[in-house]
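Lab notebook, bench 4. We co-purified these components, and the gel suggests they stay together. Before we commit to crystallization screens, I want a quick structural picture of the whole thing.
Request: model the full complex, all chains together.
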Amino acid sequence: MSPRLRWHLARLGLHGLAVLILLYTLFPFAWAVVTSLKSGGALFDTALVPADPRWDNYAEVFREQPFGRNILNSAVVATSTVLLSLALGLTAACALGRVAFRGRSLLLATVLGVSMFPQVAVLSGLFELIRWFGLYNTLPALSVSYLIFTLPFTVWVLTAFVRALPIELEEAAMIDGATRFQTFWKVVLPQAVPGMIATGIVAINIGWSEYLFAATLLTSPSNMTISPRLESFMGRGLYNWGWLMAGALAVTGPLIVLSGFMQKHLVAGWGGGALKG
Amino acid sequence: MRRRPLAAQRRRDAAWFLLPLLVALAVIAAWPLARTIWLSFTDASLAGGAHALVGFANYALLIEDPDWWQAVRNTLVFAAVSVALETALGLGIALVLDARIRGRGLLRAAVLVPWAVPTVVSAELWAWMLHDQYGIINAALLALGVIEAPYAWLADRALAMASVIAVDVWKTTPFMVLLLLAALQTVPAELHEAAKVDGAGALRRFAVVTLPVIRPALVVAVVFRLLDALRIFDLVYVLVGNASATATMAVYARQHMVDFQDAGYGSAASTLLFAVVALASAAVIALGRASAPAPR
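Here is the predicted assembly.
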């Protein structure tokens, strides 16, 4: 075999592998789209192209179920989760990234340790607490509970960003007469924006799709977020696979669009934080 | 106020800046965990009401329950097999995506999609594909002549764990790819060229040049995934429910705590799961300490 032929064969093999990888990662979505366009008996044949494609499933899943409400709930929880974790994460990062104090590394290690907690290990305690606070079966119960997932990485990444900012910049601003709040708002905050975007996307994803806490802390269908709602479609024998696939795709679309738009920021933010840290 | 040295003032400010974080962690992490451990020594019900201390009674019952040990085995099998497969597949995919091919950017974005999708959604997509009567996987395998009768991928005790692992591999491999792709980017191209000039084949170049450079990232990714896999709950639960053939420690704990309202017993199971993860983390840190300072 000539080297040239070998090179061409290798290139062909590489592209073949790339196609296989794409097929593996994306086929389940393609199949969900196909299924969501079928109805009645057509659902149960395995035709790769629906004979009579219709959008009815999408309309029905929103009409027959309070599914629009569930999506709104997920949006509210995702938004409040990201705002809460950025507010708490950023204030903490300012202290952790700026000020040398005793116990700082211990505190950072503890924060990281929290990210290793199994969810069930806090479930009964959290359940009690949420009831004491009168938040049972309300959306704020979730926004607060999700901080256990979002705070560790938010604090770590933002601390790395704040630490990377030269202290002279801040001092110069203060010598020029800026108040501490102005310094924070105009000097520190802009520096941390890539990290805020990157951690924010992951926090939104958690708020939007978390399952166990949502399924335990919310009870009424109209209060539920999308994950327990979709699961209850399956569990209750409401086995219209066309609806299920339509619902699954409807809640996934926004996430994919968001990650697509933010992909560059995602890599820059996490990578930047890690490199700077 | 302004006259004071900046450093001292800063330290005082720092305490105020840290306060919200500390309060939040105390309320949502430390207190619930402490409470779970406390409840594990009681006969508490999730519905509330009075409860009494029962000492180690819950733990004694737990270690006599064969279902618990089945859950421990399931968890260990799940963690070991899924992380091994994810590592191998993730490395393979990362190597392909690292090569110069057309549409690489788009390909990388597409590969990450399963990771961004809600777990419940991925469980549903696969539950449909693995459906025993109408699933496309049975249909395809029948058409190809690989199997002669449709399999009940999720209901059959012998197949359910394999199916769960397959779905987890699909969902989580992108995470491995992301980390390994970043590591591959740091492999110096000159080293590859030099090895090529020396007549090293592709496999040998991978073993001698690529692997040593990406090893630290590989170790971090595997450790991180293992600690995560030990806690697996939602994918297993949504795909197959509480079935004992696949129930992991977390599934078992939740079932007793929530479905049976037995907060005491469920908390005992949760506490043991926490202990397992904590011990695993401690072991990782200790191993890291032991191996780090050793000079080459």
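The mean pLDDT of chain B is 90. Worth comparing against the SEC data before the next meeting. Residues 176 and 261 of chain B are 37 Å apart (CA to CA).
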